[in-house]
């Protein structure tokens, strides 16, 4: 199986071109094996670039623990880069099918290759039953959540996949590694949840760290950054356009008047290889 290692703001996945490659039947096991940073290729998960009847390609995304997610913001930018740079499509505006519908992506070129991508991530999902969370409110905004002996105020948003956002005074490992896993598996989130921690710099600038469902701390999370931008507006903290600093890079976000969230960020190809050797 040929693969390509790519990252978006340091959120790295093993990508497989399923137009050409056939996969083993146990894809969750494959995702676990390739993601292993000591005994595998090393990544936050596995992303399949598949043929689609409604777009230029279809993305399927598996976390490092083998669980499948509906959506991946950094991943869908890299899928667009792969599809354009490898000649699967020639258009700079691409349609990619995801678990959150068919998204429209605008590729920004440097020479003949894609350098960054602007994605219309669609409308945020703000009903608690659809996020899904058992917390009250559509959506829950600054809702009380008891975690690890603390009473947090959390805001929940789905971008096709579920996110739980906590605005903190100062980011720390205690938040991300101590509280993150407890939020991920909290009984209020029947499908588990991605946990974002946000430090506010100004109404138009935030710093984010994330504990991802199924992958642990990653250097960036595109859907999480979008969800956090929406949460900041809902909580009355930030403006509709924000710059988000993540450990692996920056993402630009805008919750537009049309209710759609736009995300712009980098997409990078690192190397190609064959698995197993
Ligand atoms: N890093 C990804 C999100 C992965 C979400 C995944 N951990 C889930 O289970 O939903 C992103 O850029 O949007």
Automatic annotation (TrEMBL):
Single GO biological process annotation from the record: lysine biosynthetic process via diaminopimelate
Alphabetized, the UniProt keywords read: Amino-acid biosynthesis, Cytoplasm, Isomerase, Lysine biosynthesis
Q: Which GO terms describe its cellular component?
A: cytosol
Question: Entry's InterPro entries?
Answer: DAP_epimerase_AS, DAP_epimerase_DapF
**Pfam families under this entry?**
DAP_epimerase (PF01678)
Q: Which GO terms describe its molecular function?
A: diaminopimelate epimerase activity
Q: What is its EC number?
A: 5.1.1.7
* Gene3D superfamilies linked to this entry: Diaminopimelate Epimerase, Chain A, domain 1
Record site: Could be important to modulate the pK values of the two catalytic cysteine residues: 163, 212
Q: Identify the metabolic or biological route this protein is part of.
A: Amino-acid biosynthesis; L-lysine biosynthesis via DAP pathway; DL-2,6-diaminopimelate from LL-2,6-diaminopimelate: step 1/1
Cross-referenced HAMAP family: DAP_epimerase
Report the function annotation for this chain.
Catalyzes the stereoinversion of LL-2,6-diaminopimelate (L,L-DAP) to meso-diaminopimelate (meso-DAP), a precursor of L-lysine and an essential component of the bacterial peptidoglycan.
What does the subunit comment say?
Homodimer.
For this protein, the record's NCBIfam families field holds: DapF (TIGR00652)
Under which name does UniProt file this protein?
Answer: Diaminopimelate epimerase
To which species is this protein native? Answer: Polystyrenella longa
Q: What gene makes this protein? A: dapF
């Amino acid at each position: 199986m040929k693969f390509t290692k790519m990252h978006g703001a340091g959120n790295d996945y093993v990508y497989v071109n399923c137009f050409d490659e056939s996969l083993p039947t146990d894809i969750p096991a494959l995702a676990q094996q390739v993601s292993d940073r000591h005994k595998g290729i090393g990544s936050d998960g596995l992303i399949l670039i598949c043929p689609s009847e409604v777009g230029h390609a279809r993305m399927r995304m598996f976390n490092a623990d083998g669980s499948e997610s509906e959506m991946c913001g950094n991943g869908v930018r890299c899928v667009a880069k792969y599809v354009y740079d490898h000649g699967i499509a020639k258009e700079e505006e691409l349609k990619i099918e995801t678990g959150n519908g068919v998204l429209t992506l605008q590729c920004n070129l440097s020479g003949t290759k894609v350098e960054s991508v602007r994605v219309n991530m669609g409308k945020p999902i703000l009903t608690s039953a659809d996020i899904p969370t058992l917390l009250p409110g559509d959506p829950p905004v600054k809702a009380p959540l008891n975690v690890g002996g603390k009473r947090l105020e959390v805001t929940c948003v789905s971008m096709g996949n579920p996110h739980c956002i906590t605005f903190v005074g100062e980011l720390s490992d205690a938040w991300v590694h101590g509280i993150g896993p407890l939020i991920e598996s909290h009984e209020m989130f029947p499908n588990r949840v991605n946990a974002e921690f946000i430090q506010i710099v100004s109404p138009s600038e935030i710093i984010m760290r994330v504990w991802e469902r199924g992958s642990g701390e990653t250097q960036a999370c595109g859907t999480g950054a979008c969800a956090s931008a929406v949460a900041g507006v809902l909580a009355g903290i930030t403006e509709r356009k924000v710059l988000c600093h993540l450990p692996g890079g920056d993402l630009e976000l805008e919750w537009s008047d049309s209710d759609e969230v736009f995300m712009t960020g980098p997409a990078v190809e690192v190397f190609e290889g064959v698995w197993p050797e």
